Amino acid sequence: DDARRTARALRAERSEIAGAPDDVPEDGSGDGAGGGTGDASDSGKDVRKASLPDLREAYRAASQVYEKVGVGADLRAEQARAESDESAARADLDRLSNKVRTRAAQLLESPDGSDGPSRQAAAARAEELVQLLETRMSSASEQLGRLRGEAERHAPEDGDTHTDLPEELQPRDTEHAQSLLRTATAELASRAEALTRAREAHAELLDAHRAAEDAAGGFDEIAAMLRDLLREHAAEEEQDEPDPYAGDLEEARRGAAEARRSLRGCSADLSAAEAAVREASDVLVRHANSTRYEQVRTPARQQIRELPASALPEHAAKWADAFAPRLRVLTDELAQLERNRDSIVDRLRGLVESALATLRSAQRLSRLPEGLGEWSGQEFLRIRFEEPDQATLTERLGEVVDEATRAAVKKNSDLRRDGMSLLLRGVAAALQPKGVAVEILKPDAVLRAERVPVGQMGDVFSGGQLLTAAIALYCTMAALRSNDRGRDRHRHAGTLFLDNPIGRANATYLLELQRAVSDALGVQLLYTTGLFDTTALAEFPLVIRLRNDADLRAGLKYISVEEHLRPGLPQPAPAAEGEGEAVHSEITATRMFKRPAQSPA
């Protein structure tokens, strides 16, 4: 069975081989030689048996040789393209006329058409000739268009010709026209040159004519000036005949030269005087037209504005006489105003100096007591400024007064002119340009001597620190007010009621600082609060608890004292031995006085 299956496979493989014989012996004696692919000698000797792999390899080699000698697909495709090109060329040839084909046949019979390279060279020369002819044709077309444009531009608007020519100048042909044109061009050039020479001569004559006219005009001016100088104050008929000069020519010339020099000097003086008069007239007119005197309605100002400048010198004397009394009155009034201004400036300077002294007193009175750490002996306020000298201060205050005066005269001015505003502007002007710098100590838990500008308090201080600083400033201002009123030795400088300050400043160090500053400056602080903060309330020597009571029948409300808390009140000191004085440390009795009602009138 295996042998039969092998035989069937081999037969199937043999059937696929082209040219293999169909009759193969069954016994296999001719195996491998039936296909004609085995090796055999030329003399018909015994055929050598070959194995199946050898025969297969020989078959593959024979197939490769067969494929190499066979016609490939690329050759067939090239053949097809050649046949297509041949058919297209034949169609193009059929479309040509007989004349073109006859001329092509003649060219092919010529030496240029003997072979391929000759034909390519001849075709290249023909292409170059065609391009040359096309270039010449385009140049000729362009020149023809330009000539046609020139002919249309030079063509006469009316009629066929620009002018009528005699018969001998009418061209017969192109050569005759060119010769006539050359003759006309030469004649035109000669005429143009003659025209140029004539124009130059005409320009020279015009220059000479203008120079002569200028000289004549100058001579006329000199003659007129001499006539005016010689006959200025008398009519021509009233002039006496001049006497002949008795001296010789040289003396006459010297006298004439001296007279001319004197005349020139007098003319110069007269010109200077006239210029001074004109300048004074211009100044007077500008002065009268100034906006400062718009409210002045005097007739003289109206005349000055309306009269011509040449007529002003005639009225100058009358105006001077009329203005002299008014000038004296105005001078006196201005002097009085200046004295009043000086007195106002002096008074304002005194107030400004007092205000600056108040600033220095505020810094001095803000000195803190001992027992506050680094704050001991420090000034709570530090006010720095540069005091100007007397001359500078007077000048600046004068400017402030002048500004207030101008604002009073000016309409719709919002500048305030009360005493306090004027004093504040005077202080600001006195401290220019640097102004005043105010620094305040910053309250903190350790009481460091750190100063902060007042303009930065809102950014740097907390709520409790702001309240503490405000209380310290109030105490300083109260002490300053007491000092200004002459009660600097009086211990009590005032009382300050505070509306629930513990809600913002309940820190122990802040309360201690507030009480220390108030004790140092003699201000009594009264704290009101509804909070029962034992830590904060323990700092006060006396706490009075109040209660709201209501009388419903009478419709009245009362505030009653519920209890007194004295965690820090000192005990009454016993009387000193040997001294009969009583220590007054508490209130023992009170008296109330009620003013009687006034009887109706």
From TrEMBL:
<feature type="compositionally biased region" description="Basic and acidic residues">
    <location>
        <begin position="145"/>
        <end position="176"/>
    </location>
</feature>
<feature type="coiled-coil region">
    <location>
        <begin position="327"/>
        <end position="354"/>
    </location>
</feature>
<feature type="region of interest" description="Disordered">
    <location>
        <begin position="78"/>
        <end position="97"/>
    </location>
</feature>
<feature type="compositionally biased region" description="Basic and acidic residues">
    <location>
        <begin position="1"/>
        <end position="16"/>
    </location>
</feature>
<feature type="compositionally biased region" description="Basic and acidic residues">
    <location>
        <begin position="42"/>
        <end position="51"/>
    </location>
</feature>
<feature type="region of interest" description="Disordered">
    <location>
        <begin position="102"/>
        <end position="179"/>
    </location>
</feature>
<protein>
    <submittedName>
        <fullName>Uncharacterized protein</fullName>
    </submittedName>
</protein>
<feature type="region of interest" description="Disordered">
    <location>
        <begin position="1"/>
        <end position="51"/>
    </location>
</feature>
<keyword id="KW-0175">Coiled coil</keyword>
